[in-house]
Amino acid sequence: MPIADLKKTVTKSPIWKSVFRHDYKDTPRNRYLQVLSNVWLHLHPTKVSRHAVELRYTWGMGGISFFIFLVLTVTGVVLMFYYRPTDQYAYYDMKYLMNDVPFGAFIRNMHRWSAHAMVITVWLHMLRVFMTGSYKPPREFNWVIGVILLVLTLLLSFTGYMLPWDQLAMWAVTVGTNMARATPLLGHEGPLGPQIGMRPDNDIRFLLLGGTQVGPPALLRFYVLHCVFLPVAAGLLMIVHFWRIRKDGGISGPTGKL
Amino acid sequence: MHQLWAIVSKGDNIPIVIMLFLVAFYVAWALRQAFANDKSIAETAKLPVPDKVHVWPYLVRIEFLGAIAIMVIFTIWSIFINAPLEEPANPNRTPNPSKAPWYFLGLQEMLVYFDPWIAGVVLPSLIIVGLMLIPYIDTNPTGSGYYSFKQRKFAISTYLFGFTILWVSLIFVGTFLRGPGWYFFWPWVTWDPHKVVALTNVNLHEMFGIHSKLIAAFFGMIVVGGYYSLVPLFYFWKKKTIPTLQKMGLVRYAIVSFLFLTMMALPIKMILRWTLNIKYVWVTPWFNV
Ligand code: HEM
Residue A129's domain spans which residues? Predict the structure, then answer.
């Protein structure tokens, strides 16, 4: 049989064997190797509790949140090719994306809707973790990391909201950052703020915006936070989050003790 | 109606509508499983311990299908609905109402009932810190790894109250029922940008006929202080008879009651405002509560 021979020649060749470490036959050993020898899959253990693959237990919400984060990273990088975070260009780059760039509107839409969706899926993930008591020992610290991830998710969404530089963006961020004025001690309208010398041009809101109102410096600040600082921080914490799931004994489940 | 539809169908508000359904669905699903587990624990005093399965293929295939499903949904969504892009940013034209992004509308809604330093700074910080503290203040060892209700009545009711009533439904109010001037409009009422509501708010001490500023400040301090200290007193009174209290210890108990009372301060103040038009319960020259 020439085809079978050909297959054998190919799969036994040094090149093939240098790429694929094991054959595909469905044996327990290969099932382990499939996970262990693959850099992407070895985020997983080789075996998990049956409970962990039941959708009605985890709802898959953590995994979905992570996948949406990946979608956002890819679409976000594409958007960065077309976007300049300055007063002069930002809005018109958006117009250009929406009207002239091939698939520009599609990519922007996907980035926007995924961002909203991620906020929701993270809330739902948290709801299931709470309802299953999965924050209890030994998983206390992973819950804390989760809360930081939640805050980062909201901040990512919030800083991104500003970037189109339209009326919606500018005023939503104005409303949001006006709160900072009222910070006790650190804001110029907060309790005891004025008494210790806080003014509109030296308080915590000024630090956040780089000015006394939402203007071009704020746009640049939010851009850098949105595209560099926050995604890197969230990515690093997700690595810790996933690592801890395994170190804490895998996905929680009934242990026999009630 | 027409206007309600205009708000609901705004691109950025579609996720909120979806969220309302999803939250209802998942809360119901969680509780259903919780009650089923409660029942089987009551009947057999155990839950089966699951065995292990290979990740390849049993987990990887779910992840693969899940990823495809999400991509299909997002692709269709992105083809049919465009992300909003309004007029260029203009610092001289303030839209009315100006709204924060939807996920912060619960916080913006709290501004009706508390001053910005509380609603915008203190409460959000306490929400974050409080959430982080949950694993350390909840000493109940049961109910980990399965849905349950009976074993964790207080924890689950408090969380669900906070999440569904105080967070999700305030987002709903902020998005759909707040119009120009952040005034409340029923869905069938047209937003009138010239709506004026007579300010009839009073402060708590005025209702008690106190006029001196100094006395008012002390009065407020006693009211707020009393609110926060009643529950801790309960600890000393009942410590001997309720074992859970002893197990928690004073520090944990104090933190739990502080966070719980702070959370409940929001609905209390909402009700005080709706029924008695009360604006502040504690007025001082530097801050008001
Ligand atoms: C960016 C956001 C997040 C991502 C990508 C993420 C991802 C994940 C994934 C993939 C899992 C595996 C099990 C599952 O899917 O349910 C998980 C578990 C877990 N997550 Fe998250 N998570 C995030 C946010 C959070 C938040 C906000 C919390 C809670 C405050 C949290 C707490 C936990 C805990 C305690 C576990 C272990 C659950 C168990 O063992 O049953 N995570 N997370």
Answer: 49-162
State percent of chain B over pLDDT 70: 99
Residue A39 has pLDDT above 80, yes or no: yes
Considering only alpha carbons, which residue of chain B is nearest residue A87?
B89
Domains of chain A: total: 1
Query: What residues of chain A lie within 8 A of the CB of B29, using their CB?
Result: 56, 59
How confident is the model over B3-18, as a mean pLDDT? 85
Please report, for the domain that includes residue A113, its CATH number.
Answer: 1.20.810.10
- For B34-63, the pLDDT digits (tens) are 999 999 999 988 888 888 999 988 999 999
Confidence of residue A74 (pLDDT cuts 50, 70, 90): very high
Nearest to B136 among A28, A140, A190 (CB): A140
Using most ligand atoms within 8 A of CB, pick from A48, A125, A131, A149 the residue to mutate for ligand 1: A125
The percentage of residues in chain B with a pLDDT greater than 90, rounded to a whole number, is 56
The pLDDT of residue B195 is 77
**Is A135 near chain B, with CB under 8 Å?**
yes
CB contact under 8 A, A55 and B71: no
| Chain B CA closest to residue A40 | B60
Which of B33, B72, B75, B103 has the most A C-beta neighbours within 10 Å, making it the best mutation to test the interface with A? B103
| Residue A122, domain member (yes or no) | yes
The pLDDT value given to residue B200 = 73
- Nearest chain B residue to A140 by CA distance is B135
Nearest neighbour of B163 by CB, restricted to A48, A127, A161 = A127
The answer to ipTM > 0.85 is yes
Q: Is the CB of A227 under 6 A from ligand 1?
A: no
Q: What would the pLDDT profile of B82-117 be if each residue is shown by its tens digit?
A: 999 999 999 888 888 889 999 999 999 999 999 989
Does the structure show a pLDDT above 70 at B123? yes
Ligand 1 centroid to B252 CA: how many Å? 25
Across the interface, whether the CB atoms of A171 and B94 are under 8 A apart is answered: yes
In contact, A254 and B142? CB cutoff 8 Å: no
Q: Identify the residue whose C-alpha is closest to ligand 1 atom 25.
A: A146
Query: What's the angle, vertex CA A204, arms to CA A203 and CA A206, rounded to 5?
Result: 70
Instruction: Report if residue A62 sits inside a domain.
Output: yes
Domain ranges of chain B: 2-197
